[in-house]
Amino acid sequence: MRPRCREYGLRLGGLVPGSKNTIADVGEVRVGHVTLVSGEGKHVPGKGPVRTGVTVIVPHRGNVWRDRPKAMWDTINGCGELTSAVSMREFGIIETPIALTNTMCVGNAMMGLIEATLEANPQAAADEDAVAPTVSECDDSYLNDARGLHVKPGHVRDALTVASDDVRMGAVGAGTGMTCCQFKGGIGSASRRLEAADGGWTVGALVLSNFGWKEHLVIAGVPVGRELIALEKAKGPVPPGGGGSIVTILATDAPLSSRQLGRVARRAFMGLARLGSFSGNGSGDIAVAFSTSSRVPYDAPENPLEETRVHDARLNPLFLAAVEATEEAIVDSLFTATTVVGRDGNTSPELPIAETIEILDRYGRIA
What's the domain count of the chain? Predict the structure, then answer.
């Protein structure tokens, strides 16, 4: 993994990151990846080359099926998939970890989450309710043999097994075959910690970035994409630009209702807009937010729920934290990713860091 943007002196926003500056700064959140890379050269549909994977976000160390985090989602452009969206809208919870993968493997990722949940909960889908897993996706078919459906249910279970608070970024897991603004994109993460006067809570973001055109890329308010296009080193074959997609997962330890979490999720798109995205026609721009401290127990439903939540009047710092964390997570998905050559020699080049830092420094953005 290449260095993150802060290691070069780039500071985005005014809030302070958590100690890891990842989504793992929130409660017991963990992230696991399985990366699948094999073959090279000519595309043989159903065989390879393979450039894909799966990423899981685990909300806490307990049994997520029995202790369900409150959650909500939103979208600014719906050219994408989010399973369990209807039930999440109805009940305001997630009942499994969240998996991210490529578009064609959503079904296999669902099966992996279902299998893991059934194994840990022998009564699920028998004496208890059926399982509605949460999976979202971006399309990696420019680099990957998408027809091969290479992400299998077992890979999801492997990702759950290796999940930790050490969040790897760039071309890993679900991010292996993704392209962002015609550079190599993928997984990025960041966090923001609020001052005690604002509640002392933390908001963490994890993104799967696969959107946009180079000419629109903006970093810290600087038209980095246009500046890079003007440089000789930035010329030559590049991936086609396009709407692509981005999925943002936001976690917070603030006690919030599902309605409030929907409001937090909506702010992810403001962080996305800071990178120059206009949510193109083919872009699936999806955000899910969950709280690690607001949970709904599956057992003993006859007991009234007693809940604490933040007053709406105190949400502004959380909104700002969501925007800043999303923005930096996207930037770090670009900074940390390395060049990937995929099927038919299709190449997603890494962001040229030296030139990018020189541009940002020229605009006074490097501390």
Answer: 1
